[in-house]
């Protein structure tokens, strides 16, 4: 049974700001109160990165192994209710949202809610600079880092020049065989022109295929994220082959050009898992830049790429 909520008209005064800046993403702008720092060549507002880290720490403290995503779904619902015009839980338990921002392509952002295994009882999160790790068991940044990235983009999207609709899908049971994404409602998926999954280890990878054998998108769609990286001062974002993720489902089952982007975690599924908060934040900057500059046109949908 789908739940649905439409935002009251009084919220719609939150129009996109008129930007004179031509580069970067609003998330990377200086706060009037905050200083600036340079992280791997990207100028970030300290306050914004601190707020992002705070958001990620909150998500990392919520349990939710595959099939037990209730608490993380509730936490996301409570945040998205202030952002999305449409918000519902589908029959599989996926949390779906839409954020209309004018006329243009519909772009799906997606991350999975389930953890590979349950968080260890009494574990602590240790911070060493921008790096986080757990004192016991997995950290859970796979894929809470991806969730934090998508929340950051959704939170700031109306301050960009993006024109179109942002759709969000937070999936269940990804870790046990991409179960949730396969059951997403075709009616929700039908108008989506392009998808961005935030669930790749490491930094600066734009995954455009499964092992180089099963394409997620045409080459041009992957390359537009390289261009966004260059625009945002991160020219080392590069397309590459990768592993299994919901991006494969969006591409192969729904015919949607998709990429899976690095979100800064490493050694996932082990006690050595870490996440680099600054790297995850930079992924939000990358997506925001691609949307702000309207690099995603939707022209690649249903192209010849799907079957090679
Ligand atoms: Zn994952």
From TrEMBL:
<protein>
    <submittedName>
        <fullName>M28 family peptidase</fullName>
    </submittedName>
</protein>
<keyword id="KW-0479">Metal-binding</keyword>
<feature type="compositionally biased region" description="Polar residues">
    <location>
        <begin position="9"/>
        <end position="21"/>
    </location>
</feature>
<keyword id="KW-0378">Hydrolase</keyword>
<dbReference type="GO" id="GO:0046872">
    <property type="term" value="F:metal ion binding"/>
</dbReference>
<feature type="region of interest" description="Disordered">
    <location>
        <begin position="1"/>
        <end position="34"/>
    </location>
</feature>
<dbReference type="InterPro" id="IPR051464">
    <property type="entry name" value="Peptidase_M42_aminopept"/>
</dbReference>
<dbReference type="GO" id="GO:0016787">
    <property type="term" value="F:hydrolase activity"/>
</dbReference>
<dbReference type="InterPro" id="IPR008007">
    <property type="entry name" value="Peptidase_M42"/>
</dbReference>
<dbReference type="Pfam" id="PF05343">
    <property type="entry name" value="Peptidase_M42"/>
</dbReference>
């Amino acid at each position: 049974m789908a739940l649905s909520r439409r935002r009251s008209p009084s919220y719609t005064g939150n129009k996109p700001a008129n930007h004179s800046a031509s580069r970067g993403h609003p998330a990377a702008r200086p706060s009037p109160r905050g200083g600036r720092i340079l992280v791997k060549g990207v100028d970030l507002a300290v306050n914004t990165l601190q707020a992002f880290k705070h958001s990620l720490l909150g998500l990392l403290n919520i349990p939710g192994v595959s099939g037990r995503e209730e608490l993380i779904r509730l936490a996301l619902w409570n945040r998205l209710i202030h952002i999305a015009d449409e918000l519902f839980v589908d029959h599989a338990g996926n949390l779906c949202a839409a954020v209309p921002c004018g006329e243009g392509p519909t772009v799906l952002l997606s991350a999975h809610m389930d953890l590979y295994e349950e968080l260890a009882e009494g574990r602590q999160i240790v911070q060493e600079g921008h790096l986080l790790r757990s004192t016991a068991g997995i950290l859970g940044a796979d894929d809470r880092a991806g969730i934090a990235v998508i929340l950051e983009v959704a939170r700031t999207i109306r301050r960009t020049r993006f024109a179109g609709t942002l759709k969000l899908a937070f999936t269940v049971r990804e870790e046990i065989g991409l179960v949730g994404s396969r059951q997403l409602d075709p009616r929700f998926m039908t108008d989506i022109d392009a998808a961005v999954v935030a669930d790749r280890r490491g930094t600066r990878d734009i995954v455009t295929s499964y092992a180089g054998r099963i394409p997620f998108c045409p080459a041009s769609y992957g390359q537009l994220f390289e261009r966004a990286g260059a625009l945002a001062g991160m020219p080392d974002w590069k397309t590459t082959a990768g592993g299994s993720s919901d991006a494969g489902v969006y591409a192969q089952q729904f015919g949607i050009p998709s990429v899976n982007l690095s979100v800064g975690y490493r050694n996932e599924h082990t006690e050595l898992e870490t996440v680099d908060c600054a790297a995850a934040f930079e992924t939000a900057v990358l997506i925001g830049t691609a949307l702000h500059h309207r690099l995603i046109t939707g022209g690649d949908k249903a192209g010849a790429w799907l079957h090679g």
